[in-house]
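chain below, 284 aa
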Amino acid sequence: MLNEKKIAILGAGNMGDALISGLIGSESSAPKNIICTDVRHNMLDEIKSKYNVRTTGNNLEAVAAADIIIFAVKPQILASVLIETAPKLDMSKLVISIAAGVPLAAMETCVQKDLRLIRVMPNIAAAVKEAATAIAAGAHATQEDINLAIEIFSSIGKCIFLKENDLMDATTGLSGSGPAYIFLIVDALADAGVKVGLSRQDSLFLAAQTVLGAAKLLIETQEHPGQLKDKVTSPGGTAIAGLATLESGGLRTTLINAVEAATHRSKELGDMMIKSFSKANSHQ
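prediction:
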């Protein structure tokens, strides 16, 4: 049971804050069972004041006291934090990383020991508890470990489990980077609204609410997007005129290419991380 576990969250940034809020808000964990670390003491003071969790500037102390360790640090410093905490990491603890673009192979080369590893790719919508999160497991992670990870990240949105670790790059390209694509689309729709006479405020609200409503309709009805599209389009009507323009402008192809490009970039960065983590380990 997750509420019986001691959880260490290394990194009190946006994602760390969102996780603490989600865990406590969903009653998946009690404040007394969460310990948070960060190099910024002002951030720790803020987190402690807001959530009444334990805080420390000592990563080793937090790891030693925890059953589950969540590495919520930037990818660039994950290697150094892993090396720092490695003496207290062992098979008795579940180790979860949310560092974007860092493959499990990179972490394994860094610590040079068997660990129950889980890699997680949430997105920025964790801040409003609507993250789309992908979860993948290392060779030594158990089904219970996977279930615990799903419970943790369900507190900040919705999750899927991937049996294939190499598909994490695809989720980075789609859902990890996806909010940026939607923000661009909403911004463009708002500009269009202004162009045809709406105020900026009204146009932005209508564009954002339209995206929210369309997504909710897709999720709750579980209908194919093509079926829902057909329900909006009437013969010779406004929607089909707009759709024809989007098709002639190559919107569909452009979005497919964007996800593919982001996926390829994620793979490149992952390969770089494996080399970098291996180098960091050799310099210990």
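The first strand starts at residue 7 and ends at 10. Residues 2-168 form a domain with the Rossmann fold fold (CATH 3.40.50.720).
thats it, cya
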